[in-house]
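Recap from last week: sequence in, structure out.
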Amino acid sequence: MNEVIVNNEFFQLLLQHQGPLHAYVLSLVGNTTDARDLLQDINQCLLEKRDTFTPDSNFLAWSRKVAFYKIQSYWRDKHRNRLLFDDELLNSMSETIDSLPDLYNEQIEALKSCINHLPADKQTMMQQRYGQFMPLKQIADYWGKSEKAISVMLLRIRLRLQDCIQKTLSARPRI
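Predicted structure tokens:
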């Protein structure tokens, strides 16, 4: 029973850190498809190594370290005949990423805040489209508008959110 609780907590941490971990992998790999495939391998490796993780420690730092070794292997395998990234450069890039503020989480928090400042009808429309994945036709029927009108409204909401996120992030002090 105790192992189930530990595993459940581990899985929750793994799920919670997928976004930042994917951003880390993508920043070192540069190719979305390869990063997605590599992230699956990294997740499998993290699950296999879960017994080495110390609870109440920094899960993201631990998972990035595991990912770093997988990424090193990726570059070695991908370019056996010609070395594009040597270990020193890859290590330097990884350290730079680790030293940056956690921009991903800041962006998510800014997005949540900006969504909360939208009028209720705009929040509902965003939830329908991006939370429930409703087709434009169904949303248009719900609001009594054309699909084109809904599409334009969603574009304006996204632009408004993008502007709000940029203003929110630029207003925060940088360390």
